[in-house]
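For homework, think about our next protein:
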Amino acid sequence: MLQQITRGIKITVRTSFQGTFYKNYTMHFAFGYQITIENQSKDSVQLTSRHWKIKDSLNRTEFVDGEGVIGQKPVLKPGESHTYNSGCLLASPFGSMSGSYTMVNFRSARHFGVSIPTFKLSAPFALN
């Protein structure tokens, strides 16, 4: 489990290996992750967008940008949290993800970035 706090927003990440499968004659490694976003600030905020950098051990990098998370733009009052699950596919058994969320503070109407800590993705059978 990894945690990081940016401007009063605490991000907690848990990862899991989901298995392997073939797609278009290529083996893929599926990873899941659970993220909890906790508002420890004094203001209500809303998550508006996300930015991900996904790397595998074959030196391939993919960037993913989009609105909200899993189709939602959660509003968090002080002390509230939002947890969601998602995943990614890699062409190798090792990789990492890092990124950020863009949020808006309702009191000031200003947008700000929240860092997502870099987390490792690894298939347990590939570890030595």
